[in-house]
Amino acid sequence: MLYWLTNLSDGGDFFNLFRYITFRAGGAFFTALVFGFFFGRPLIDLLRRKQKKGQPIRDDGPQNHFSKAGTPTMGGLLILAALAVGTLLWARLDNGYVWVVLLVTLGFAAIGFADDYAKVTKQHHAGLSGKLRLLLGLAIAAGAGAAAAWLHPAALSGELALPFLKDTLINLGLLYVPFAVLVILGAANAVNLTDGLDGLAIMPVMIAAGSFAVIAYMVGNANFANYLGVHFVPGTGELAVFVAALIGGGLGFLWYNAPPAAVFMGDTGSLALGGALGAIAVVTKHEIVLAIVGGLFVVEALSVIIQVLYFKRTGKRVFLMAPIHHHFEKKGWGEAQIVIRFWIIALILALIGLATLKLR
What we know:
This protein is mainly alpha-helical. The chain is built from 13 helices and 2 strands, in the order ααααββααααααααα. It has one domain. It is 64% helix and 2% strand.
């Protein structure tokens, strides 16, 4: 919205700053951060009054989790509100990519909110049915995939770019939208599975998002894209503003989610943030790189898949408990130890993912 202040500029005054993505990204970050700090405590107090017993704790989970009984959930609302305010205030609202990613984020947030609401009201860890969640997610992701294919330049529409290779594209044709659905839906659920300990999910999400802010900015700039040998997708640089707002809102939330958490993100936040990462990857034509940058989420999701398939086949378990962060809890690792080590892994993977920009 504030971008339109450039209409008041003669090219050499303060208003000219609003033309620059970097300036507006900084503004979005600080707007979302201040929003999170200012509204965090009132929102937590409201959630605690409304939910009373808070998020239900699984009976089969680690014993130390019972000490968290009564902690409210749906804290993702704080991140999403800060993200929406920062984005709508500072991003160019005539950019289609911004709307695709923002609507995916809010769409998955709605699914997560309904799921959290069902859990809280029933006081049971089972929320919406898996089939309903899947169908709603499929619809949102398919719409985003189709919109991205329509917005992409003709030479890139329906194409899959490969990391480490210059000027290499695979034409997926009609399979592009199903592939985009797999990326977006997979990312949403992978982040959702990772959100099991205080602060475990939000920091890796911010690290991955920060990596994609760099990718989006480079891919959206013709000079940088040509220098790095990546495919130029005009307009994607504006997503750096969205990501900056996400990181600002995430830090505001982490202030209250740091152990011991005053509020849980809930499916409201985890599904939304995962969907956002998937949508950004699709829009920037870096879908495969997401599997590297978000490798921690991939491992968490794979641990669940492996556990379920192996148990159905043999009746035995590969891990003491899945997702894998619970496995380490069962082995005696402290919660802070797991969280910080997983943050370190997320940072290393993000750096490897960013290296794909140059290693071609």
